[in-house]
Amino acid sequence: MNVIHLPILWLCIHGGFAVQLEVLNQWNLLSFDLPFQYNYEDIRLENTVFTGLEVTTNRLFLATPRLRAGVPATLSTIPRNTPPGSSPVLTAYPNWSMHGALRGNLNCSGLISVYRIRADSCNRLWVLDSGVTSSLDDFTRVCNPKLVIFDLRTDRIVRSIIFPREVLRPSSLLTNLIIDESVQGRCDSAFVYMSDTAAPGLVVYDGVKDQAWRIMHPSFFPDPDFSNYNVDDESFTLMDGIVGLAHSPNLATLYFQPLATDRLFSVPTTALTKGPPVEFEETPVTLVGKKSSQGLGLTISIDEDTLYFSPLAETAVASWNPLTNTQK
Ligand SMILES: *[C@@H]1O[C@H](CO)[C@@H](O)[C@H](O)[C@H]1NC(C)=O
Ligand SMILES: *[C@@H]1O[C@H](CO)[C@@H](O)[C@H](O)[C@H]1NC(C)=O
Fold first, then answer.
1. Which of 101, 104, 112, 189 falls between 20 and 30 A from 74, CA-CA?
2. For residues 272 and 215, what is the distance between their CA atoms, to the nearest angstrom?
3. Domain CATH number, residue 189
4. Within 6 Å (CB) of ligand 2, which residues are found?
């Protein structure tokens, strides 16, 4: 039997490392620059929370998925460098006509429900639209999922990629994306790795071949023993699969975590980019370590390959370098 030496990331928060964090912006409820013809009775700001954030030279982009009814716009922007602690009004991106879903205009050329966005090195924003509304309530698929790429200089759509049925499952919910510009080129030549959280899987898109395929592995699934969350005396249940993704170009590795687990995994990107898997092929997933609690967000500092994640139960941010086993 192989003995696996598994680093355990038990964070000791009470004796932990206290950092002074600076509040850039804060809101009790988000506010939007709604056009006058909108009916304020349709809007439910208590259902409008952001899950995705991207920072560009002059703007912050916020993705607010339609988890429940009443989300005004699913993607919006605020200026960067607003006064510390201020509550800027969100502007729908690129404009309100792309967000007709609130008013029942389920036009698939608009944006339906976006969880995360990423900028590439050509000053473009890749928007992953899940196409599903009220995913926490009745989970209604209104459009196929798609990637929409905006030129950030003009805020116009430069490309739209609609995924074929073969890479999806009836309950697919594409939530997160990584743009890998280190394999066969930048921007339009990139590979994109996307998490399917509700029908656990990874969807890989090859920008050169304009082709997508699906990767399956048991580690993408939620663990029922970790489907219950306790945060600050509140508790809830959520059986979400793979959602946190982080990419190291240096190590050619994709790190990932389902929400309902205490584990963190990795897979070499060569196993993802080589094309659609053949029947019975095993995806070489490695268990990287265990965390003190579940988590959604995952990112990496690409200079040192340090992972950053947020153990939900501790409402903390933790860092861990798998190469040196440094933890903070
Ligand atoms: C669908 O959305 C596009 C882009 O947002 C818009 O230009 C078009 O007029 C809309 N069509 C309808 C029928 O609402
Ligand atoms: C909204 O943005 C889309 C995408 O760039 C564009 O096609 C459409 O013309 C814009 N609509 C308005 C009213 O500006």
1. 189
2. 7
3. 2.120.10.30
4. 94-95, 97-98, 156-157
User: What is d(CA 92, CA 197) in angstroms, rounded to the nearest whole number?
Assistant: 25
- Judged by DSSP in three states, 101 sits in helix
Instruction: Give me the helices (H) in the chain, please.
Output: 270-273
Half-sphere exposure of 270 (CA within 13 A, CB side): 4
* Model confidence, pTM: 0.93
Tell me which of 97, 102, 156 to substitute to probe ligand 1's pocket, judged by most ligand atoms within 8 Å of the beta carbon.
Answer: 97
**Amino acid letter, residue 212:** A
The CA 101 to ligand 1 mean position distance, Å, reads 11
Cis amide bond preceding 94, omega within 30: yes
Residue linked to tokens 């339009």: 188
| pLDDT tens, residue by residue, 224-263 | 999 999 998 999 999 999 999 999 999 999 999 999 999 9
Q: For residue 254, tell me if it sits in a domain.
A: no
